[in-house]
Amino acid sequence: MSKEKIEACIKESLEAYFKDLDGVAPHNLYGMMLSCFERPLLATVMEKASDNQSKAAQWLGLNRNTLHKKLAEHGLLND
User: Fold this and answer.
1) Alpha-carbon distance 12 to 5, whole Å?
2) Nearest Cα residue to 76 out of 35, 68, 64, 25
3) What's the structural domain count of the chain?
C-alpha cells in the first residue's frame, strides 16, 4: 500500500467523522487522531519485530526510551 493510499484512507475516515458530527464542533481532534493511528502502528510494528523494542524503535525512527513510554501509554507492554 502506498503513502497516497494511506493518506486517502485517513481523509475518508475524517470525512465520515465530520459527517457523523453533523455540524457539532470536534474536540481534541489532533489528539484523537494521533491516538487512533499510534496504537495500531505500535502494536503492528512490535508484532513484526517479534516484540524486540530496539528493532521496533529503529524501524519507527524513535529512541528506544520513547518507544517504551509510548507502549506503556497505550497498554502495549508485554512484561
Assistant:
1) 10
2) 68
3) 1
Written as nine digits, the cell of 46 is 512490535
Residue pLDDT, tens place only, 7-63: 999 999 999 999 999 999 999 999 999 988 999 999 999 999 999 999 999 999 999
CA distance 76 to 68: 9
Number of Cβ within a 10 Å radius of residue 47: 11
Residue 57: domain span: 3-73
Q: Do 42 and 78 touch, CB atoms closer than 8 A?
A: no
Residue with cell 512490535: 46
Sequence letter at residue 2: S
Rounded to two decimals, what is the model's pTM? 0.80
3-state SS, residue 49: coil
